[in-house]
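Could you join me in thinking about how sequence relates to backbone shape in a protein? Would you write everything just below, so we can both look at the same thing?
***
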Amino acid sequence: MRKKRTRAILALTTLAVALVPAVQAHALNNGVGRTPPMGWNTWNTFGCNINETLIKQTTDAMVSNGMRDLGYQYVVVDDCWMDPNRDSSGNLQANLSRFPSGMKALGDYIHSRGMKFGIYQAPLDRTCAQYFGSYPGATGSLNHEAQDARQFAAWGVDYLKYDWCSPTGSIDDQIRTFAKMRDALAATGRPILYSINSNSIHDKTGPRRNWGDIANIWRTTEDITNTWNSGQTNGYPMGIQNIVNVTAPLSGYAAPGQFNDPDMMVVGRGGMNDTEMRSHFALWAIMASPLIAGNDVRNMDSATSTIMKNQNLIAINQDSLGLQANQIVSDGTRRILAKRLSNGDVAVALFNQSGSTITISTTAAAIGQSGSSFTLREAWTNAVTTSTGAISASVPAHGTVVFRVSGGTPNPSPTPTPTPTASSGPIRGVGSNRCVDVTGASQTNGTAVVLWDCNGQSNQQWTATTAGELRVYGGKCLDVNNNGTADGTGVLIWDCNGQNNQKWRFNSDGSITALGANKCLDVAGNSTANNARVQIWSCTGAANQRWTRG
């Protein structure tokens, strides 16, 4: 058993970061979702107990209570809306006992109220409710992709939630299958926001790649539940803290038109105190997550309404740059996230993961701003203070304080790296013609990185970020063991944390420099064999230190 290693904690006041996303390749550009979608979904509160009256009442409530005008525009009808059988031509049809006017009329009503119409479907033979036997039929889109896309367009659908809901299929099968509906939606000519979930009853493939070439939003975890910590790494169900652990490191994937989706919100559904509910909303906002309400918005109490309608946080979430906050500190107790905004401001979240009140501090320099005069607006109280650079707050247990920091000028990245020829893909050894590979496709911290025959699998797909990281599976980074600097120190995967032992530079001679150690990525003993250990070594220019992308 490998002993748990000790790791240097980031200095909260000295880390400067580049608040920019990873270079994107082949991103879906269907004209929608340029900022994270906002709206409401039936599932969290009502499950299969839905009908036409409920949807209309909710639509009306979102207009009258001001949610629509704050940006909550999508009304999404989740599972159990459909008749258990397709019609004689194979078309989907509404369950007329629940939706007697049909789905086209429902969409027309939603549109008449100035809102947009969302619907649910699944890519295999059954929806989730059908898979679990809580709703009859088998009406998934398998072999009906183009037909269903045309039907959705004819009904005026603006948002499709597409849920894998099966233990079958590899990640490559999922990519191909989700792409069929992507292409079918595009062929209709109607702009339809495409939301996918690859994780339901399945190996958790959501965080293992950038799905921006497939969908506008993609789920990073299993289903959310209204609890703070469910004890799950990424399994059913997921608490707020657990979801943040998975999603916060994936910031490089977000951009206008494509966002990580940590699931619909549970604000207002009980199970947590007000501080935790506020953290939930604040973290979703700064992570550029979709803000899809899951409570009964017809009957919100004042505390829930105050959270859901916080205009400071909505503005941060809906900023036109479309950036997810970078995680600049995460030491198990405190987490600091920083998100650059289009007007030059930076939003900073100070998140207390512990069970008692603590002071969390950082600086303007640490979030990428230089200067000596700053204005801080606190998102919950709207209080404005000034600072010469210190950013600090007393944060209650499980609380999150968010500041919008104005003033100063952006710092360049402290370790600028040339952009590689591709944003993601394999790293192939010149001497071995084999690829940098995570042993056994494990996602466990400390798993060794080795050479292996190139196979295109996700444990050989490395995304280079402009912050200098080499990410695999989204939430894990190529890491020099224990911040080592000695020749022969091994490399492995670890949670991305922004430390210099996770920063790399691609050089014109094909070498890759570990910035913390100033040594080169190297294959032990000049080996070319499968399972040869990858390490760092003084740079020599030899073939076992030269690499190509793709």
